[in-house]
Design a protein that fits this description.
The protein is mostly helical. The protein has helices at about 5-20, 25-30, 45-65, 70-90, 90-100, 105-130, 135-150, 165-185. The N and C termini lie far apart (about 45 Å).
Length: about 200
């Protein structure tokens, strides 16, 4: 394992356990076996370490997502499972991503926001096709809400227990929440002449 990877692994554990602000660069260095100022030959500042951890988040998501699927139902399945995989198999990264976005330095924010927009747009595109009667603002709000629902599993207390079927449970909860998009649009009488899918397409 490279020295960079050891530093990032140590920072991932410490940031998750104690928060970004609660950990110093020297502590990360000691945990990674890097002494003194040697850590600065790998990362110029703690901000850069956090940005590198966020890059890990996006790499994990993109590896699971792959290329967009032309079938919106299949695409929705992919984006939901990518987030469930992140929160259940990369729990510390997911927890850091949720809690520490405001800690990201401005110098790294543009790239982070670009990646996040791409991920969010994948959700919005497939939901727009599955529920064409829903407004864009409703779809964006639903996307953010369901993403946070899925990521909340990474915020369990250290002693919190995870359900044995957590992944399947999270998927069912996400689909049920997204089904509300179609219900909301239809209750407002927005069916019109546009082709619609039954609410179960999102359920």
């Amino acid at each position: 394992m490279s020295r960079d990877q050891k530093i990032l692994d140590a920072a991932e554990r410490l940031f998750f356990e104690r928060s970004f602000d609660g950990v110093g660069v020297d502590e990360i260095g000691r945990a990674a076996g890097v002494t003194g100022s040697a850590i600065y030959t790998h990362f110029r500042a703690k901000d850069e370490i956090l940005a590198a951890l966020f890059t890990r988040v996006f790499e994990a998501l993109l590896a699971r997502l792959g290329e967009p699927d032309p079938d919106p139902a299949e695409e929705l399945d992919k984006v939901l499972k990518a987030f469930v995989d992140l929160t259940t198999h990369h729990e510390r990264l997911a927890g850091i991503w949720v809690r520490e976005q405001r800690s990201l330095a401005e110098a790294h924010r543009r790239e982070h926001d670009r990646r996040q927009r791409y991920i969010t747009q994948r959700w919005v595109d497939c939901l727009s096709r599955l529920c064409p009667e829903a407004r864009t603002d409703e779809i964006v709000t639903a996307t953010r809400g369901v993403q946070l629902l899925l990521m909340s599993e990474a915020l369990r207390p250290p002693t919190g227990r995870r359900a044995r079927d957590a992944e399947e449970l999270l998927l069912r909860m996400a689909r049920s929440s997204l089904a509300a998009l179609a219900v909301t649009a239809r209750s407002d009488g927005r069916d019109g002449d546009s082709p619609t899918r039954p609410a179960t397409s999102l359920g």
